[in-house]
Amino acid sequence: MVDITVKIGGEAGFGIMTTGLLLGKIATRSGYHAFEYSEYPSLIRGGHNVIEVRISDSEIYSQKSKVDILLCLNLETFNLHASEVKDGGVIVYDEEKIAQDKIKKTAGNISFVHVPFNRILQEQKLPTVMLNNIALGVLMHLLGADLEILNNLIEENFARKSREIIDKNQTAAKVGFEVSQKSLPQGSSVKLTPLKDALPKMYISGNEMIGLASIAAGCRFYVAYPMTPTSAVLHYLAAKSGNSGMVVKHAEDEISVINMALGSAFAGVRSMVGTSGGGFALMVESVSLAGITETPIVIVMGQRPGPATGMPTWTEQGDLLFILHSGHGEFPKILLAPGDMEEVYKLTLEAFNLADKYQTPVFIIVDKYIQEGHQSVDKSKISEFKYPVDRGKLLSQEDLLKISAYKRYLDSPDGISPRAIPGMENSLHQANSYEHLEDGHTTEDAGERSKQVEKRNRKAATYLKQDFQMPRIYGDDNAPLTLISWGSMKAPVLQAMKESASHKFNLLHFNRLWPLDREKLKLLLSGLKKTLLVENNSQGQLGQLLTMATGVEFDEKLLKFTGRPIYPEEIIAKVNSIT
Amino acid sequence: MDNLKQALPKAQKNPPPAPVVSSSSGSLPSASKLHAAFSGYFPTWCPGCGNFGIWTAIKSAFSKMKLNPDKMAVVFGIGCSGNMNDFLWANSFHALHGRAIPNAVGIKIANHSLPVIVIVGDGDCYGEGGNHFLHAARGNHDITVIVHDNRVYGLTTGQVAPTAYKGFKSRSTPNGIIEVPVNPIALAVSQGATFVGQGFSGDMAHLTQLLESAVKHRGFSVVNVFQPCVTFNHVNSYSWYRERVYKLAPENHNPEDINRAWEKSLEVEEKIPLGIIYQVERPVYTDSLPQLAEKPLVFSEPVTDLEMLINEFV
Ligand SMILES: Cc1ncc(C[n+]2csc(CCOP(=O)(O)OP(=O)(O)O)c2C)c(N)n1
Ligand code: SF4
Ligand SMILES: [Mg+2]
């Protein structure tokens, strides 16, 4: 069995992220599963960056604590992470940069590979940006992988550059390969021999997957203001607008972002916005506007640790209750929180249908951990997924011509009124931020007010009947302990389950967080033997939400709010301590 | 990939006709009929309020231009001005206070064949939504912004607006406002608006013509309209304006000359110009979006090859 973690660390600006990305891609092209996790400070140059790539021949869900190969591009990487290298592992370092005596201090059965990165650059007259290819060459040898795969990737990545640039990059890789061959001829103990019958895999980040899904959903307008960890959705969609025909707009602030999107949605275009907590705080008044005007919108809310600017490049699940309660007044909203890449794809697609169907804001709640990390996913799960577009009660021109006096906010048993778009004949209507009559005109009449409030509220009931799905149980149904978690923390829990190979616990994972079917959930939760809440925040927000909805309290909690994700090892330790 | 086509609204695949009333019989409704078509409820403004003049001028301009209430979009702000949502009946979006401009920009990007008009107050446009105003001007989004400049917040019962003269006493500034007023004209010209006009609700004929030119202008057009608030502003009354305003004409002003526009923008107190202060041509925002070359976004078919995009990650 192959299960190897490679950690690469160095100063920001040395292409460490690219090295990790390419390594993951080499692994998936060789048929392996891969999972990437990175840590970096909110700086452009300097500071300490690390990226780790876990590669396995069986399904993996998350990162782990122990490292097989540590590639140090600076002394700090060595100082901070050498202790994570497991027995039998390999440390790669530049002996000319990192003093010998400091390295010697590490005990244990660890092999050292000396790679003089800077000297190679000088001797081969290569620019510093090619350092990552030397590193990749080194890794290719250590992992017994085929250098050809790397050479092909270099060709593809630099297809639009000159032959000379491609040659230089490939030379860097070759030299790295040879140097590590000389230093440690046998390589590491793990070999990435290409797997024969492996299914073709994508290697993709959560942000890219959201972007890809929005294109597949027929989203035509994406508006955003850059904010980590969601900026890459903007970058991806902007880069692909030539293919997708989507209009991608970087607006002046988040208030404008959401209002532009509401304008375009009012005019009939599937629209999405993306942000993080601070930017979302600015949008909140308009979430309420979407609620009362009944305008469909998809909001990508990428969490990072707050309050305020908090820790911009780290991860947390601290905004669930903020999102739930966002927007003044009472109106329905739908909260989705995908737990892995496949869920990111499918729930993003679904978000657009739900927004159109319920004419109300729909949230895709993610976080740095799932947004910026790359993961492998079987290509067929994405490319073969059938998605029927449902635009709900959107009226066509023929429909409109059959209506005598069109009422935008017509009362209806399911709470949803037929929606016209401006520009069509007989479409005359008003989307009104004031409380309104069925025809859209402003009203303060008590009866009409109650009618519209009840109509809007009924959408939640309709959703529960037609679209709600219960949280999924993973693992042994009869396990004595149930871990309860949501969104991205599915990954470490499933990994912990796999690694402990025990039937001690199962996972109840929520990816639809609101509206909730209180009765069914109460029945389910109160029937659990023992519960452990697992959340990447300090206040157990899913726990609060479920208690509010069902009255059920939880026995134990594992809460982590250091800005780092929860590790499978921490889950196993917690489980062991309470069982 | 057929799925993607369903993401379009079910009906029109082609751009809707030009912004004139299309009638099945082939004959166009008369301007007076149209004027009536645009009329909603009778306004609830204070008797004598300058908003009546603006309302009438807007309806006259729209009907003279034969705009079709179905085939346009009007975005209203929040204020006495924005309350026109129930008095002017056209396809409309009643926005939040300060946010009408981004809604309008979004509508225009979604369907650039629709004329898009924004009706806002001075507090709404130059205060709460000031940032949006700057950026919409820069983008030369093809929308028309009609600002009701009454130098107060009418709807919230008489606080000072950013257009008030220094020293103006109001319920929020009983000792007089300390700040100097914003200069809407200079602001619009400097930020890239391509049509900047100034009107007076006490001169409806002139205002009607000005609004017509503004809506016809291709690009970001702003019309700052002096609107006496008879209830909360006892300084800037109809007679106060009548003593000061004068009309720009080809003999005394060339609106294409930015330096002349600057000069006019500084005439804010003793004599005040009315008319087109600045007008130039510049490509509008949507001209630079190749996605919109063939049809409006709302009717365009995604040209994507999803398989190709997926394979980029393999
Ligand atoms: C975010 C927000 N803040 C405050 C208000 C309250 N409010 C409504 S209208 C208004 C000011 C109106 O002044 P102006 O825009 O000049 O319009 P006018 O009434 O003078 O036409 C204010 C402060 C609001 N509706 N929304
Ligand atoms: S308060 Fe002023 S602006 Fe508002 S309706 Fe009355 S006169 Fe007009
Ligand atoms: Mg005002």
UniProtKB/TrEMBL annotation, chain A:
Every Pyruvate flavodoxin/ferredoxin oxidoreductase pyrimidine binding domain range: 213-454
Keywords from the named record: Oxidoreductase
Stored SUPFAM superfamilies: Pyruvate-ferredoxin oxidoreductase, PFOR, domain III, Thiamin diphosphate-binding fold (THDP-binding), TK C-terminal domain-like
GO terms (BP aspect): response to oxidative stress
Entry's Gene Ontology molecular function annotations: oxidoreductase activity, acting on the aldehyde or oxo group of donors
Gene3D superfamilies in the record: 3.40.50.920, 3.40.50.970, Pyruvate-ferredoxin oxidoreductase, PFOR, domain III
Highest rank taxon of the organism: Bacteria
Record has NADP as a keyword: no
Record domain Pyruvate/ketoisovalerate oxidoreductase catalytic: where: 13-178
Family annotation (NCBIfam families): OAFO_sf (TIGR03710)
UniProt name for this protein: 2-oxoacid:ferredoxin oxidoreductase subunit alpha
Lineage: Bacteria, Candidatus Gottesmaniibacteriota
